[in-house]
Amino acid sequence: MEAPAPHSPAEAPMPNVTIEFTVTSPEQMQELGRRLAKLLRPGDLVMLNGELGAGKTTLTRGLGEGLGVRGAVTSPTFVIARVHPSLGDGPPLVHVDAYRLGGGLDEMEDLDLDVSLPDSVVVVEWGEGKVEDLTDDRLHVVIHRAVGDTTDEVRHVTLTGLGQRWTTVDLAVLSA
Ligand SMILES: Nc1ncnc2c1ncn2[C@@H]1O[C@H](COP(=O)(O)OP(=O)(O)OP(=O)(O)O)[C@@H](O)[C@H]1O
Ligand SMILES: [Mg+2]
């Protein structure tokens, strides 16, 4: 990435930070989640997008392990949001599956995510077009299978940090 111009105004839009990984098994996806957890702090919103069965919940399971929270991360049939409290002194993980919710923040209002976000790590599956109003600082994670991948377990994961929060985070440490 290019260094910023020396006298660029403070209000200048920050460049997005994007990094892509290829993951070849569910275990590796979970490991990516565990590593990502180490970069997260209260107030972080992580949006997970990608088709059914892409591996969003699998990644979240790793996040839960890395954060050291209570309870197994699952994809519940009826529950839209589940709070996993920390087993230590870290933030709770709020895991939202917005698949069955309609568009707009209105529908999300009952979840009070705006209230829990400052003290929690909030991870939302299928949140596109639904939770962006919560904050400008977001980590967008897109998981997809590419045409021509040789096995069923190959996934391409793209992480994009949006907003001030992510300009100072080196996502490349995730591949270390
Ligand atoms: N590389 C991989 N990463 C993640 N999951 C994988 C991978 N390869 C195979 N899988 C399998 O794909 C499935 C992913 O399921 P998961 O519930 O994590 O997906 P999801 O994106 O949350 O789906 P949904 O949209 O239904 O919530 C699991 O059965 C997992 O074992
Ligand atoms: Mg899921």
From TrEMBL:
The superkingdom listed in its UniProt entry is: Bacteria
Bilayer-crossing regions: none
Keyword Nucleotide-binding (UniProt): yes
Localization of this protein: Cytoplasm
**InterPro entries this protein is in?**
P-loop_NTPase (IPR027417), T6A_TsaE (IPR003442)
Task: For this UniProt record, give its keywords in alphabetical order, as a comma-separated list.
Answer: ATP-binding, Cytoplasm, Magnesium, Metal-binding, Nucleotide-binding, tRNA processing
Give the protein's function.
Required for the formation of a threonylcarbamoyl group on adenosine at position 37 (t(6)A37) in tRNAs that read codons beginning with adenine. Is involved in the transfer of the threonylcarbamoyl moiety of threonylcarbamoyl-AMP (TC-AMP) to the N6 group of A37, together with TsaD and TsaB. TsaE seems to play an indirect role in the t(6)A biosynthesis pathway, possibly in regulating the core enzymatic function of TsaD.
Entry similarity comment? Belongs to the TsaE family.
Put simply, this protein is called tRNA threonylcarbamoyladenosine biosynthesis protein TsaE
Per the UniProt record, the source organism is Streptomyces yaanensis
